């Protein structure tokens, strides 16, 4: 580990490590896992890993050769931020987003290499198959019959606040070094989440600065730390993050590259749970107390419990969307919602 090791990270237990030597074992382990795990050297044979072992500039040259001639979104962070992408003191973020060709962005990183107090640069969640030619094919993990979204994350030293994702996640470090601090999904109350509609990257984030936690302001964060796990991944290592687990991610080297895979085991016709939460805020949260209690009971009955008593008294052919969802019945629900929002 490098900077920040004398803070909260030094006392946290490590994420368990597993030895996995082939695609079949990885597939089986992923299907059975409900907690995170690390696999050292899982992608050590990738060409991008070998290029990065020669030098960060060689890795950038390798990546740039595969780039499409289109603008990439890049975040340039306030140099006083310590690399933390976060809210600023006004009504915005402490970083600016611009668009440029990858060669131009990498030229800026080349020029800043070794220069103190330069603005951190971060390219987040770039679709590998949309923005590159052949990069994914030469550097990918065999995930069996899953159809994951493969993304690449590139940048200098950065800190990404704790957040979670709806999808399962296999994160593979290709260049540099990254530290992950993970929390079980039930720790969201103790992480002091920020806004749900105004976020740095679409998901609510923890408002706690992990490098300088203010326990007077965020006292329950101590409880979150009692459940935390940590790992530092080098080039070639991988980490599995189960759906909805909270993760704080740091790029520790002067240049870092991560390739990650997101997938969901649920049917593709299901929508995002976050959309339902947002709709519930719109429709239910500000109702009188007794009405909210009623709707909570309704949600328990139809959604969270959803036992046989919901439908056993209804003839099977009349159950409609109360039956197990199919692509067709899901589409009927979408149509109802579209009409409701169109009013």
Automatic annotation (TrEMBL):
SMART domains: JmjC. The lineage of its organism: Bacteria, Pseudomonadati, Pseudomonadota, Alphaproteobacteria, Sphingomonadales. Residues 122-278 form the JmjC domain. It holds the Pfam family Cupin_8. PANTHER family: HYPOXIA-INDUCIBLE FACTOR 1 ALPHA INHIBITOR-RELATED, HYPOXIA-INDUCIBLE FACTOR 1-ALPHA INHIBITOR. This is Cupin-like domain-containing protein. PROSITE patterns: JMJC. InterPro entries: Cupin_8 (IPR041667), JmjC_dom (IPR003347), RmlC-like_jellyroll (IPR014710).
